[in-house]
Amino acid sequence: MTRLCILLTALLTLPGCIVFDKKSEAVAFYQFSSPQAAAAKSDPVVFVTRASIPPALRRPNLVMLDDAGWVRIEDSHRWVAPLDRLISEAIANHLASINGISTTLLAPPADHLVLLVTVERMAVQAPKDATLRIHFRLENSAGEVIREKTSAWSTVMDSPNSAEFVRAQSKNLANAAHDISTWIRPSVTPTPPKQP
Questions:
Q1: Tens digits of per-residue pLDDT, 112-142?
Q2: Is residue 167 domain-resident?
Q3: Alpha-carbon torsion (74, 78, 82, 84), positive or negative
Q4: How far apart are CA 34 and CA 101, in angstroms?
Q5: 67 contacts 125 by C-beta, under 8 angstroms
Q6: pLDDT of residue 190
Q7: For residues 90 and 170, is the Cβ–Cβ distance under 8 A?
Q8: What is the pLDDT of residue 182?
Q9: Quick check: 53 and 117 in contact, CB under 8 A?
Q10: What is the CATH number of the domain that holds 182?
């Protein structure tokens, strides 16, 4: 009977205990830096869809790919949210702050433009360059293509670590948003009505 009481007590109390060892690492969480712009009131609104990303990047861990095809997965370095959402949020925030383009991450019920973002490459290139290649496609709400473009950006990292990779890719996303704002803006500007 005593053995049974000790066994039940152990089963009820020990599962809640966490054993820490000196080898455990703290987990660091990352997100891209982007300005928090005030809500713009341009018409129509640009709906920035969730980015399409390569399969190797679809994980909560920070993944660094290189030119040789090597994949380095950082177990103790993670994204604060899904990477496809973080990329879209950064682009939408930059577009709103650059020139007041009204952006949303949810499809609005009214007439709007759709910005489709496809990340073709997000990697580390020798010796210490963080590269980003994205294909953008702008459509109207009916699905008709207005414009599309593929561009690449590269930023030198101070050292090949996770924090520097995120900093460099944040800068690449800011450059991407700046480039895209130059060709979205004319589409957002209302056209003058035709004279009969």
A1: 889 999 999 998 887 788 999 999 999 988 8
A2: yes
A3: negative
A4: 15
A5: yes
A6: 45
A7: yes
A8: 83
A9: no
A10: 3.40.50.10610
